[in-house]
Amino acid sequence: MFHVLTACFTGLTFSHLIFGALPSFMGLHHHALAGTLVLLSAGPIHMGGQEGRFRRAAAVCLLVAGGVVCFIAGSRFVILLPFVLIPVYVAFQSLSVRRAALAILASVVVAGVFFVVFPGKIPRAVNYESTFYRVEAFPATWAIVKQQGLLGVGIRTPRRSFLESFEPVFGMVSRDGFLEVVDRNVTWDNQYLSLLCGIGVPLSLLYFLLIGRLLGGYLRRAWRQEIDHATERAITFALLASVIHFAVHDGLFYPQISWFFNLLLGVGAYYLPGAVPRSLPSKHTVETGGPSAQHMDAPQFRASN
Fold first, then answer.
1. CA-based nearest residue to 70, from 40, 34, 18
2. Angstrom distance (rounded) from CA 78 to CA 186
3. 88-112: per-residue pLDDT in tens?
4. DSSP secondary structure letter of residue 161
5. Is 233 exposed, middle or buried (0-12, 13-18, 19+ CB in 10 A)?
6. Separation CA 149–CA 236 (nearest Å)
7. CB 140 within 8 A of CB 163
8. 28 backbone dihedrals φ, ψ, rounded to 5°
């Protein structure tokens, strides 16, 4: 599976580098491009955790190339993501404090360069669409849920008619300015709020419960070190980064993002440790490099109780 993810990551990255890294290429908005690359990056990350200098060097080159694509496309999310995920890796003991400090320092430098190149990406509190639209979406969602909370209004249904009496709460934008963006964007740029409005509270909570159960099961396995480090780092990054990304983008409405997210979630939650064949090598097979010696190269998982 990780080989397929690596191939897809390589193809998407270099197609943008060769034919143009603008978000319009292949019809992907920069958020959709970033969301897809984040999930596909599980492939290169897994490859980087394998033995061999060539594999690690190739993985680093691929990830840097993907980062360059997101940088050129203006993805602020990818630039700021390390500040959230690096502490998580430290908490799961997947990254040492020293390396985490170096990574944070490098991220600060990259973020500084990004905001110099794209000054329009610097968040502002007033009349800045990227900010006010996502912040005001919370009270606006509540206003719609109070009217159509059971079944929702439909995923692509215009929402202006449900917000005729709505007034922005936080004073970041005028009412007319907010409704103009509502008409143009259709959804909330927040997967969780968009589902609550689109399909109603009961179905949304059921979906959140199922996703949370799978994600929680995977994180417990990762905490207990039941998964090899390469797989853990790859899946943890892809899943947690996607969950965070869904708070600023309706990623699951893109089929490629939805498919890869649910695929990795299922693999992380149900990839059984016992599925990897293991046998105790005899002295003869170890010395002669027989089949049992080959099994020693496979990832060794800790069996769950």
1. 34
2. 24
3. 878 877 788 999 999 999 999 999 9
4. G
5. buried
6. 33
7. yes
8. -100, 120
